Amino acid sequence: MFNIERWQEIFEAIAKNKLRTFLTGISVASGIFILVILLGAGKGLQNGIEKQFENDAEGIIEVWSNSTTKQYKGLNPGREIQLRNSDYEIPVQKFENQIDKKSATNITWGGLISYGKESGNYQFRGVNPDYLAIENGTIIQGRFVNAKDLQNNEKVAAIGLKVKQDLFKDADPMGKIIVVNGINFKVIGVFTDPSGEREESRVYMPMTTVQRAYGAGDKINGMMFVLNKTANYEEALAQSENFTNGIKELLKSKNIIAPDDDAAIGVYNSVEDAKQFYDLNLYIRLFFWWVGICTIIAGVVGVSNIMLIIVKERTKEIGIRKALGASPISIIGMILHESIFITTIAGFVGLLASLLLLEFVGPMVQSEFFRNPEVDFGVALTTLGILVFAGGLAGFFPAYRAAKIKPIVALRDE
């Protein structure tokens, strides 16, 4: 029930102690402000991580070779392992039912690529038809390398948007001839990549053509796989771990590598990394909650201390109220009302300030692993609940103390 006299008392108490009330409100507002900003930052980290995993197909497993680190079957350590076409074909055949997309790679990190008077140093790769899908790239003009290109050793190339802009400017590149390390290739497509210029500064060509044109024989640098989708994350993780263990065993056996030499064959499993990133993000967000709530508690303690001072100042008044028949519940309600009002108003100011900051400044803060910090509606409701609870908690102990005051003692108070 609305009690205008109680509201008048609250505003009179605030008016008498403007500076004290203002400083108390600042401590509460800053606590809510810091909490919401930290939660928004945690969401920004999560958005950044999710964006990184969107840049490539889900569940990528990448395999490459290194040098051996252990002696095995009479072979010394330090032996460099060279992957070949057969190293790619064996796991493809063995795990055929598990694999959704696949590609071997033959990479030249810096190649001179030119068209007419324009030239530049770009990375070019021999790949299989699934490669662009694995990288989550998109053909915006023409087509990508296909099986017929590999079968016929066609000298064709799909170029990244950055390469197209550098070499062709505004001209149409389709069907034009580019020179890649001294060998002519016809442009059959232009692609974009969500990761940006780094991937768009590449040129992709048929694996068989690259091996033959540049004297690589049957050598490859590595291989990439995307496994079939599963019902849930745990199944995907188990499937990917089974696949990575299986391919390691196959390659170690074929290349005479010690079973316990884990350095000779490198494997990157994005499913495992996804779990690590999301676990890390969870820990960061829990830490942010902890810091924010501790800051709020500091503000609540300040409000509670102020309310204790107010109770002390109003001891005689409380005694008179009780002598006139005021119940302990009404005394507690009076103190809680003032405490919740101050805390909630200050908290709303902090909440509003933090939401405005995230709304206008947040989109300007963009980096590789931090994007669009924001707070969703559920978190805002949670924060609102924290405000009300904090106000009640701040006033409870002073209110309880006020309710225990004996009228005769209160009336003697100076």
TrEMBL record:
Transmembrane domains' residue ranges: 21-42, 287-311, 331-357, 377-397
Domain of life of the source: Bacteria
A Pfam family the protein falls into: MacB_PCD
Lipoprotein listed as a keyword: no
Domain ABC3 transporter permease C-terminal: 292-407
Gene Ontology molecular function terms on file: transmembrane transporter activity
Principal location class: membrane
Subcellular location field: Cell membrane
Gene Ontology CC entries for this record: plasma membrane
Protein name: ABC transporter permease
Source organism: Flavobacterium agrisoli
